[in-house]
Amino acid sequence: MSIHLKSWLVRSYHFLRYRNARQLSGTGVSFEHFRELNRAWLTNSGIRTILDVGANKGQFAQLARKVFPAARIHSFEPLPDCFSEMKVALKGDNNFFAYNKALGKEPSFLDFYRSSHSPSSSFLQMEDLHKQAFPESKGGQEKEAIRVEVDTLDHFYETTKPEVNILLKIDVQGFESEVLAGASSMLEQVSVVIIEMSILKLYKDQPLFHDVYTTMYNQGFRYHGNLSQMLHPATQEVVQIDAIFVNERRD
After folding, report:
1. pTM for the structure as a whole
2. Helix 80-89 vs helix 59-67: angle between axes, to the nearest 10 degrees?
3. pLDDT band at 5 (very low <50, low <70, confident <90, very high)
4. What's the topology of domain 38-250?
């Protein structure tokens, strides 16, 4: 049975079995992703603000809005075309705020490499393993980088003072350590972090699971399992996970 057929059968089953799946039909939000995020311990934790770092076209923001209907969502995306699509996707949402910039360890302007598959775009050079693990990115990255603005989460927090409790989502294709380095003060105010972490090296000089885990642990967060994980299509190795960390200091 092909992967596409299996996926279709799973979606059909969910549509017939679950009311939420029928309600989400046509909204652009995957029921599978909704079910992953819509966990009682998380929805009951009083999340008031969501910081969406590496927003792409607003996929996570749309999902988060369904799970946290009253939260304020702040999304950051450096690619201009993806930023424009993101604003359209959440048009009319008065509690949604979009920023056409990246986040890192200090305010600056840096070279950013666009991928033929936009979610794989990164400040780092893509390794061949990435193209194998994610065939949609086999076109690689454009040779000419674009210059993008970089801010820090600490600066954002100081100037915006977002309401706690805060859920921080980070999906930045190997730039995780840089984002966290610019958020050392703000992390004290964050309750939950969902961060994409690589098990295998997908970008040159990127941090791997242990590196990011150590940073989070030293900041007072405990690993709370995975929201999801991505497998290599040929070997079925785990190549990336969406890891959950909970701030022990805010328990």
Report:
1. 0.89
2. 30
3. very low
4. Rossmann fold (3.40.50)
